[in-house]
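Consider the following assembly input.
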Amino acid sequence: MRSIKINAVAGGIFDPGEYGNVEINGIARCTGSFSAEDLEINGVLKAQGAVRCDEGEINGSMECAGRLDAGEMEICGAVLAAGDAGIETLEVDGALTVTGKLECSSVTCDGAIKVSEDMTAATIEVDGALNVKGGVFADTIEVDGVLNAGGQVSADKVHVEGVIAAAEVVGDEVVIWQQGRAFTGLGITITKGDKKISVGSDSGRREQRTSTIGLIEATTIVLEMVNVQTVNGTDVTIGPGCVIENLDCNGVLRIDPSAQVHNITGDYTIAAD
Amino acid sequence: MDLISKKELLAVTGISYGQLYRWKRQGLIPEEWFIKRSAYTGQETFFPREQILSRIRTIQGAKDDYSLEELSRLLRPQAAPGFCPVERLPEVREISPALLPLIARLCHKETCEFYEVVVFAAVSQILAAGAVPLERASDLLSMALGAVEGFADLSDATLTLFREGEDQPLHLLLSKTAAPLALDRGLETLGSWDLGPIAGTINLKYQKGRN
């Protein structure tokens, strides 16, 4: 299989097709769609079609006019996919923009990801910023940075230690709290089967940031510094800094005295602790 | 349409929010069944009562035997060619034995497609409900097969029967399950039958034997 290496400062043009290794150190353009086993871009690549690779390392910038598919992709530079993207294992330390939907197995975002439609993955870890205009669907979502979603965020486990803004956050376990904030009255450990969720153990201090969500609905909910219109859950803990318009709980309910909850309904018991 | 609120659904079935949303993500519960309505608390979600209760019973009954991915595939059957040999139709208990001679006259082929088996089972239910007499079953089968063929998603399809009056020809409408129907007063509705539960049951019971 052909391999290609372009070091040209300008004008490096290659044909669409299948390649072994594609390495771009200068400025290059592909006149259509291409696939590669290994793709390494340290310069600039503009593909006038779809791009597919088994492994990709983007340290420079890449723009593709069609769909982007990859087995593994590490982005330290910038990638723009003008279409849908399907990347099995995605690591973004730079910036990724997808104008369609993004489907992955595992996503680690230390940089910035922008998705214009829905995003689906098994696991999502965000230490940087994830902006999705549609919904975010996963098994687990862990956010230490910022997650903005225009639609529904749905996962078995949503753990946010940063900031989240979304129309809806739903799933089995939703925990949103402020890492590093010194707690005064909410040192909580919730036991669920053999799992423990500890909240409020960090003694450092950070600037407080408020998350804003329309609806939170989950079996177990733990919140701190969150503005929510409606919270529906089985076991619900409302911590300091929360402003909740409507709360429906049908299990055990804890509310920090400093939290504001306007309407409470459901068949709940107030936690004894 | 008879609806059930999300809160009542969880109470009646004993499932959790986590299960409900996990099954939705897996495609076991169609997005269209989540019907949002205004409420004094902002918005509340309702479901078509019969369909969601039937679907949750199916999932609860089968989830120990199948993974959620397998269940999703079985409950959203694709148009795999050649679902059931005609000679094995008598083994499909959802098909009325009274229909078998009519089916043999209509289907001059060796194997039936999945949608055809679903139609045979649905027409069996219509006959059992007494909505249509057996002597009109042949017409009904032809109409239903024509309407259902090519319908993209049988798991979200409802078949409604109506006529202008007694002794008038039967007509049949196939629509998405949650879609509201408004018929003029001159039409008499004989009943509605959801194909989703029938398709899910047939696929779950008889697909396994094919693999």
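Chain B touches chain A at residues 6-7, 10-11, 16-19, 21-22, 24-25, 41-43 (CB under 8 Å). Ask yourself how this observation constrains the way the partners meet.
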